[in-house]
Design a protein that fits this description.
heterodimer; A: 115 residues; mainly beta; seven-stranded mixed β-sheet; four-stranded antiparallel β-sheet; 11 strands; globular; B: 115 residues; six-stranded mixed β-sheet
Chain lengths: 115, 115
């Protein structure tokens, strides 16, 4: 089984719908992240969480919300989806470490299309 | 603020050629960490290597090698005798305490290795 699991892997939905992307991990890491990747572009950080009681906005949090239900689970919601949120979404985890020294471990991604 | 620049958007080589992917970074932290990740056509992101700012030793792993030079703020990645399976998007990333332990990613370089 994958260490970082994202569900669903693919989703097509309509404008205005509420969508939840889920991420679970078995790595025992405290830190979890949600990124968005648009074609030909790098990774943009949406939200991150350094422990269950810690949620922080990233570069592009508008239109998104998150929930850290447990150490192992971190969900991303689009409250009212719009077409320009069509993208590939990644969940990632990292160990606690010090000063950003830990690599991130990514899920396989969720390809989201909003019509 | 932190920044990672991967100036080469796309590179195309023929199998068995050597290829170098450039990464230039900016940070005011004196202690920081540099990473390379690979994203093959299947889409997942895989961690390749981490380098500490206080260790400028180059590293070699099989056909892969990394050249870290603080004087030029660069952390370049060379693939020797490239193979078709090396075709992927490669991301350079920077982590530091100043960025609250998060990583800043470059926009990626798409490498295509032709048979």
């Amino acid at each position: 089984d994958a260490d970082v699991t994202q569900t669903p892997r693919n989703r097509i939905t309509k404008t205005g719908k509420r969508i939840m992307l889920e991420c679970s991990q078995t790595k025992g890491h405290d830190r979890m992240y949600w990124y968005r990747q648009d074609p030909g572009l790098g990774l943009q950080l949406i939200y991150y969480s350094f422990d269950v009681k810690d949620i922080n906005k990233g570069e592009i949090s508008d239109g998104y919300s998150v929930s850290r239900q447990a150490q192992a689970k971190f969900s991303l919601s689009l409250e009212s989806a719009i077409p320009n949120q069509t993208a590939l979404y990644f969940c990632a985890t990292s160990d606690l470490g010090q000063g950003g020294n830990q690599p991130q471990h990514f899920g396989d991604g969720t390809r989201l299309s909003i019509l | 603020a932190q920044k990672v620049t991967q100036a080469q958007t796309e590179i195309s080589v023929v199998e068995k050629e050597d290829v170098t992917l450039d990464c230039v970074y900016e940070t005011r932290d004196t202690t920081y960490y540099l990473f390379w990740y690979k994203q093959p056509p299947s889409g997942e992101l895989v961690f390749l290597i981490r380098r500490n700012s206080f260790d400028e030793q180059n590293e070699i792993s099989g056909r892969y090698s990394w050249n870290f030079q603080k004087s030029t703020s660069s952390f370049n990645f060379t693939i020797t005798a490239s193979q078709v399976v090396d075709s992927a998007v490669y991301f350079c990333a920077l982590g530091s305490r100043a960025n609250a332990g998060k990583s800043t990613f470059g926009d990626g370089t798409t490498l295509t290795v032709k048979p």
